[in-house]
Design brief:
- By secondary structure, the chain is mostly helical.
- It has one domain.
- The protein contains 8 helices and no strands.
- α1 packs antiparallel against α2, α4 packs antiparallel against α5 and α5 packs antiparallel against α7.
- It starts with a helix and ends with a helix.
Length: about 180
Amino acid sequence: MILCLMNFVKNFLLFVSPLNTASQNVITSIFTLFEFVILIQLFKQVFPEKIKKIANIFLIAFLSVVSTYYLLEGTNQKFYEFEILKSTIIIFAGILCLAQLIESSKLNILNEPLFWISTGSLFYFSISILMHSLSWYYVRMPRESLMEKEILMGIGSVVKYFLYMLAALFYRDPSDEKEDASSF
């Protein structure tokens, strides 16, 4: 739910108050970096211990590189390369997470909130990679084509939030399960 709240705040800041393009890019850069960190931390939960350590080292190195790049170049620009790389890493981590969940949960996979979060993230960030890789096409097109891109990203967001909502519905607190088992 933190992801949904964070994205709500980002979109609220972007669409409610009139901002110039540079300010919009700063807000988007900050919130997408936070979203990246939160998703990687969520996916890391099901990884084996060795992969968790590698993921921690990679995450620290990646954040160092990105923050250095933003400090040198400025956050007021849109970095499509970073967006594509970030989306690719999230897709890779989501696929690893799904593989671990399938291996450990077998038939109860639909009851795992992380399954729904990783599925929604895979769907959204796959569309994001597609749209960013086609961004060269949209640069040359009229404003109506940019609206089509925004509509596709909006549909991807709705599906992502729906799957996140399913994750919240299927979440069960482990302490509740212990109380239910002890009552029998």
